[in-house]
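wait is this the right file?? whatever heres the structure
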């Protein structure tokens, strides 16, 4: 008997029940709009996972709030987060944010230059491939999977160039 585990499907039946804080209806702020444009320019306008451009993916690239999801911002202990941010844990863009003048969570959350990740529509909200639809370890594996790997019934890994 071999000790090698062959390729096999893993079906996740994920049920999550958490308390999302109350929040006002989502609006697109001027800060989000302006900094999304800057993020698109800075990142070369490619999906974080597959490296596709908007044209290659067939949809405009989407700015995902990362690491702080907008709907969760009002539950965040911003002093705790700021401590990690200033330590460099979340990278140079978040570390360089103007923490001295931080007074309200939207200043950080809607600033896509520090709290944004560009994703194609599939890797943002797609079933069996989007960050909003699967556990992070499985989602991130798509970025580093071998070219041509059959990741799911709907996705063969392809890294755009």
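ok assuming it is, sequence goes like this
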């Amino acid at each position: 008997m071999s000790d090698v585990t062959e390729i096999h499907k893993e079906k996740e039946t994920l049920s999550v029940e958490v308390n999302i804080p109350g929040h006002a209806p989502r609006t697109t702020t001027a800060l989000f709009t302006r900094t999304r444009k800057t993020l698109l320019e800075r990142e070369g306008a490619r999906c974080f996972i597959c490296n596709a451009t908007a044209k290659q993916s067939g949809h405009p690239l989407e700015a995902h709030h990362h690491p702080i999801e907008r709907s969760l911002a009002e539950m965040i202990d911003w002093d705790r987060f700021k401590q990690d941010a200033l330590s460099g844990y979340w990278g140079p863009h978040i570390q360089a944010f103007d923490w001295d003048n931080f007074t309200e969570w939207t200043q950080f959350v809607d600033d896509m230059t520090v709290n944004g990740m560009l994703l194609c529509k599939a890797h943002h909200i797609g079933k069996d491939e989007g960050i909003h639809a699967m556990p992070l370890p499985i989602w991130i594996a798509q970025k580093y999977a071998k070219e041509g790997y059959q990741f799911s019934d709907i996705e063969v890994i392809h890294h755009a160039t």
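Helices lie at 30-42, 54-57, 78-87, 92-95, 106-109, 112-115, 121-125, 136-144. so i think its the right one actually
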